[in-house]
Amino acid sequence: MKKLILLFALSLFTFNSYSQFGVNVGFSSLKYKISSSGFEMGSSGVSGVTFGVNYLSELSEKIKLGMNLNYSSFSSDGASQGQVGIPVYLQYYTGDSGNGLFLKGGAAYNIITGEVDEEMKSGSLGLVFGLGTSIGEKFVISADYNMGMSNLVKGDDVDGSLKQNIISFGVNYMF
Fold it and tell me: From CA 155, how far away is CA 113, in angstroms rounded?
Protein backbone atom coordinates (compact mmCIF):
# COMPACT_ATOMS: atom_id res chain seq x y z
CA MET A 1 0.00 0.00 0.00
CA LYS A 2 2.83 2.41 0.86
CA LYS A 3 4.52 1.73 -2.47
CA LEU A 4 1.26 2.36 -4.34
CA ILE A 5 0.75 5.72 -2.61
CA LEU A 6 4.37 6.73 -3.26
CA LEU A 7 4.10 5.75 -6.92
CA PHE A 8 0.86 7.71 -7.28
CA ALA A 9 2.38 10.78 -5.61
CA LEU A 10 5.45 10.67 -7.86
CA SER A 11 3.26 10.41 -10.95
CA LEU A 12 1.37 13.50 -9.83
CA PHE A 13 4.60 15.49 -9.62
CA THR A 14 5.65 14.53 -13.12
CA PHE A 15 2.14 14.81 -14.59
CA ASN A 16 1.89 18.57 -14.45
CA SER A 17 4.16 21.51 -13.89
CA TYR A 18 1.53 23.48 -11.90
CA SER A 19 0.93 22.04 -8.47
CA GLN A 20 0.31 23.33 -4.96
CA PHE A 21 0.88 21.94 -1.51
CA GLY A 22 -1.05 22.96 1.55
CA VAL A 23 -2.05 22.24 5.12
CA ASN A 24 -5.57 21.88 6.44
CA VAL A 25 -7.45 21.93 9.71
CA GLY A 26 -11.12 21.37 10.36
CA PHE A 27 -14.05 19.88 12.23
CA SER A 28 -15.43 16.39 11.48
CA SER A 29 -18.39 14.31 12.57
CA LEU A 30 -18.37 10.50 12.33
CA LYS A 31 -21.53 8.37 12.21
CA TYR A 32 -21.87 4.62 11.84
CA LYS A 33 -24.65 2.97 9.81
CA ILE A 34 -25.59 -0.50 10.99
CA SER A 35 -27.80 -2.83 8.93
CA SER A 36 -28.88 -6.41 9.45
CA SER A 37 -31.72 -8.48 7.95
CA GLY A 38 -33.37 -5.48 6.32
CA PHE A 39 -33.17 -3.35 9.48
CA GLU A 40 -31.05 -0.18 9.43
CA MET A 41 -29.90 2.00 12.28
CA GLY A 42 -27.53 4.93 12.59
CA SER A 43 -25.38 5.97 15.51
CA SER A 44 -25.28 9.46 16.93
CA GLY A 45 -22.49 11.63 15.59
CA VAL A 46 -19.08 11.72 17.25
CA SER A 47 -17.26 15.03 16.85
CA GLY A 48 -13.59 15.45 16.16
CA VAL A 49 -10.80 17.56 14.78
CA THR A 50 -8.97 16.90 11.51
CA PHE A 51 -5.61 18.15 10.29
CA GLY A 52 -3.32 17.17 7.44
CA VAL A 53 -1.53 18.02 4.22
CA ASN A 54 -2.91 18.27 0.71
CA TYR A 55 -1.70 18.40 -2.87
CA LEU A 56 -3.44 19.91 -5.92
CA SER A 57 -2.39 19.53 -9.55
CA GLU A 58 -4.02 21.49 -12.37
CA LEU A 59 -5.35 19.25 -15.16
CA SER A 60 -7.09 22.04 -17.06
CA GLU A 61 -8.27 25.58 -16.45
CA LYS A 62 -11.35 24.35 -14.56
CA ILE A 63 -10.28 20.92 -13.21
CA LYS A 64 -7.73 20.07 -10.53
CA LEU A 65 -6.68 16.68 -9.17
CA GLY A 66 -6.22 16.55 -5.41
CA MET A 67 -4.87 14.16 -2.81
CA ASN A 68 -4.86 14.56 0.98
CA LEU A 69 -3.28 12.82 3.93
CA ASN A 70 -5.42 13.62 7.00
CA TYR A 71 -5.52 12.56 10.62
CA SER A 72 -8.81 12.79 12.49
CA SER A 73 -9.36 12.32 16.21
CA PHE A 74 -12.94 11.63 17.29
CA SER A 75 -13.89 11.57 20.97
CA SER A 76 -17.03 10.95 22.99
CA ASP A 77 -17.57 10.21 26.68
CA GLY A 78 -13.83 9.98 27.37
CA ALA A 79 -13.19 7.41 24.61
CA SER A 80 -11.38 8.43 21.45
CA GLN A 81 -10.73 6.94 18.03
CA GLY A 82 -8.20 8.08 15.47
CA GLN A 83 -8.33 7.70 11.72
CA VAL A 84 -6.00 8.36 8.82
CA GLY A 85 -7.82 9.38 5.66
CA ILE A 86 -6.39 9.35 2.13
CA PRO A 87 -8.87 10.95 -0.28
CA VAL A 88 -8.15 11.32 -4.01
CA TYR A 89 -10.56 13.62 -5.85
CA LEU A 90 -11.26 15.96 -8.76
CA GLN A 91 -12.27 19.58 -8.21
CA TYR A 92 -14.36 21.30 -10.88
CA TYR A 93 -14.30 25.11 -10.70
CA THR A 94 -17.44 26.94 -11.79
CA GLY A 95 -15.62 30.27 -12.24
CA ASP A 96 -12.88 31.32 -14.62
CA SER A 97 -9.18 30.49 -14.19
CA GLY A 98 -9.58 27.73 -11.57
CA ASN A 99 -10.61 29.99 -8.67
CA GLY A 100 -13.83 30.61 -6.78
CA LEU A 101 -16.55 28.02 -6.15
CA PHE A 102 -15.76 24.35 -6.88
CA LEU A 103 -17.45 20.96 -6.69
CA LYS A 104 -15.47 17.94 -5.51
CA GLY A 105 -15.83 14.20 -6.13
CA GLY A 106 -13.63 11.17 -5.65
CA ALA A 107 -12.76 8.24 -3.39
CA ALA A 108 -11.10 7.85 0.00
CA TYR A 109 -9.45 5.10 2.01
CA ASN A 110 -9.81 5.45 5.80
CA ILE A 111 -7.61 3.56 8.26
CA ILE A 112 -8.69 3.23 11.89
CA THR A 113 -5.72 3.71 14.22
CA GLY A 114 -5.42 2.16 17.64
CA GLU A 115 -7.11 -1.03 18.81
CA VAL A 116 -9.68 -2.65 16.54
CA ASP A 117 -11.84 -5.64 17.53
CA GLU A 118 -10.77 -8.86 15.83
CA GLU A 119 -14.18 -9.07 14.09
CA MET A 120 -13.62 -5.65 12.51
CA LYS A 121 -11.56 -4.43 9.56
CA SER A 122 -9.19 -1.54 10.20
CA GLY A 123 -9.75 0.12 6.82
CA SER A 124 -12.60 1.07 4.54
CA LEU A 125 -13.32 2.69 1.19
CA GLY A 126 -15.65 5.63 0.74
CA LEU A 127 -16.96 8.03 -1.88
CA VAL A 128 -16.17 11.71 -1.31
CA PHE A 129 -18.45 14.57 -2.37
CA GLY A 130 -18.01 18.20 -1.48
CA LEU A 131 -17.96 21.84 -2.34
CA GLY A 132 -15.77 24.76 -1.47
CA THR A 133 -14.48 28.12 -2.48
CA SER A 134 -11.11 29.76 -2.90
CA ILE A 135 -10.53 32.94 -0.93
CA GLY A 136 -7.69 34.66 -2.70
CA GLU A 137 -4.79 32.52 -3.83
CA LYS A 138 -3.84 31.02 -0.47
CA PHE A 139 -7.02 30.04 1.43
CA VAL A 140 -9.74 27.49 0.65
CA ILE A 141 -12.87 26.72 2.68
CA SER A 142 -14.60 23.40 2.00
CA ALA A 143 -17.28 20.99 3.18
CA ASP A 144 -16.99 17.26 2.39
CA TYR A 145 -19.11 14.15 2.84
CA ASN A 146 -17.33 10.78 2.92
CA MET A 147 -19.93 8.05 2.35
CA GLY A 148 -18.68 4.68 3.54
CA MET A 149 -18.94 1.93 0.94
CA SER A 150 -17.01 -0.90 2.64
CA ASN A 151 -18.35 -3.18 5.34
CA LEU A 152 -16.18 -2.90 8.45
CA VAL A 153 -17.28 -6.34 9.71
CA LYS A 154 -14.96 -9.19 8.67
CA GLY A 155 -16.24 -12.30 6.92
CA ASP A 156 -18.32 -13.02 3.85
CA ASP A 157 -20.98 -15.00 5.71
CA VAL A 158 -21.92 -12.09 8.01
CA ASP A 159 -25.59 -11.10 7.79
CA GLY A 160 -25.14 -7.46 8.75
CA SER A 161 -22.92 -4.57 7.81
CA LEU A 162 -21.27 -1.64 9.53
CA LYS A 163 -20.32 1.41 7.47
CA GLN A 164 -19.00 4.81 8.49
CA ASN A 165 -19.93 8.23 7.14
CA ILE A 166 -17.92 11.38 7.84
CA ILE A 167 -18.89 15.02 7.37
CA SER A 168 -15.99 17.51 7.41
CA PHE A 169 -15.67 21.28 7.35
CA GLY A 170 -12.20 22.72 6.91
CA VAL A 171 -9.84 25.50 5.97
CA ASN A 172 -6.78 24.93 3.75
CA TYR A 173 -3.73 27.13 3.45
CA MET A 174 -1.95 26.61 0.12
CA PHE A 175 1.76 27.35 -0.40
Answer: 20
